[in-house]
Design brief:
The longest helix is centred in the middle third of the chain and has 18 residues, at 167-184. The protein is an alpha+beta fold and 378 residues long. The strands form four sheets. A six-stranded mixed sheet has the order 6-7-8-3-9-10, with helices on both faces. A six-stranded antiparallel sheet has the order 13-12-11-14-20-21. The chain has a five-stranded antiparallel sheet with strand order 15-19-16-17-18, with no helix packed on it. α3 (108-122) packs across α4. The model has no long low-confidence stretch (mean pLDDT 92). The chain has helices spanning 43-51, 93-103, 108-122, 137-149, 167-184, 195-201, 219-224, 229-234, 267-273; strands at 4-13, 17-27, 32-36, 58-63, 66-67, 78-81, 155-159, 187-192, 204-209, 212-217, 241-250, 253-257, 262-264, 280-285, 290-291, 304-315, 318-324, 331-336, 346-351, 356-360, 367-370.
Length: 378
Amino acid sequence: MARVVLKNVEKTYPGGVRAVKDFNLDIADTEFVVFVGPSGCGKSTTLRCVAGLEDVTSGTIHIGERLVNDVPPKDRDIAMVFQNYALYPHMTVSENMAFGLKLRKFPRDVVRQKVQKASKILGIEEMLDRKPKTLSGGQRQRVAVGRAIVRDPKCFLFDEPLSNLDAKLRVEMRAEIKRIHMDLKSTTIYVTHDQEEAMTLGDRVVVMKDGVIQQCGPPLEVYHQPANRFVAGFVGMPPMNFFEGTIVAENAQLWFDEGTGRISVPDWAKSALRGRTGRRVAMGVRPQAISDVPYRGKSGEGSVLTMRVGVVEFLGDKMDVYASTASHPHVIAHIDAHGGIVANETRPMYLDPNRLQFFEADAAGATLASAPIASSGV
C-alpha cells in the first residue's frame, strides 16, 4: 500500500467553475479516509483527480513516492469501485474479476489464484460461473469490490459504492468493506454523501463544501467538536438544532438569551463567550441532547426552554419530537419512545448543558466553544 498526498490541488472546469479549491491532504499508508459532503461539493471530482480520470488544474498528487499528475490511470496502481458497479454483462463473475489482470498479462495460474482468494474473502465462491444479471445488487457490489482486490493496488478508491443498495444491504456491505480494509490493511479513499457511512467507516473524515475542506479529523472529533456551523449541521442525524440569540451577563452569570427563554452558559464555554456580552451568537444542540425530563436528576434550571409540540414520530424504542419556540419554529428532539408527549401541547424541554455548541452568528459560523469530548458522554 502507499501514502497519498494531495498538495494545493485545484480543479477548474471550462467556464471558470472551480470544483476543487486549494485541497491539501496527507493520507497515511493503510489509512481509511472518507470524503463526505452534499452533492456538488467536489468530493467525487477530487477522487477522480487521484484516479487520473480528471486532470488537476494546479497542485500535485503523489501516490507512494511518485508524482502522478501526468501518469495515466492504468499506470497509477490504484483500483476504483464505482457507484454503478461497471460489470461486463457478457462475462461471468470470474471473468469480470480477472479482466484487469489479463490485460496486464498476468500468468493464467496467478490470475486464477488471485480470483479464488478474493472470492473467498468476499464469500462469492459459489457465484464465479454466474453472469451479473443473475446476481442481486449486493452480490454485484461484492464482485466489483473483488475486481479491485485482485489487483493488489497501492490505493483503493470507492465512489459512493453503496448508494444503489437498499438500507439493509447498505449496512451489511458497509461492515463488509470495513472488514476487508482491516484484513488487507489497504490505503483507502471513500466518497459518500451519507454522513452515517462516513462516521462508521473512516479513520478520518474530510467534510467538504463548495470544493473546500471544512474540517478533517477522526469521526468523534468532527461530531463533538465541529469546526463551524456547516459541519455541525451536516454531520449527525437528525441534524443539529440551531438557536440564534444574545449573550447576556447578569448577577455574575452568563446567559444565552434565545428570545423566549435563557440558557445558562456552561463553565467550559464562559471564557470563550465572556467577551461577547450583548452580541449575537448561535447555539447548537443535537436532537439527542434535548429531553422531556431534566438531565442527571437535576431540576433543569438554566437549561430549559418552553416548546410547543408539533409532530411526534415513533421509531421503535426512540421517537422524534418536532417542536418550536416562539423564536425558533424548527426544533427536533430524539428521545426514548413513550406516550407522554402529544401533539399541540406546550411543555418544558431540557437541554443537556454538557452537549451545547456555540458559533459565530455570521455566514461562516466559526465555532466559538464546544464541550470537551469527555464531558459529551463519550
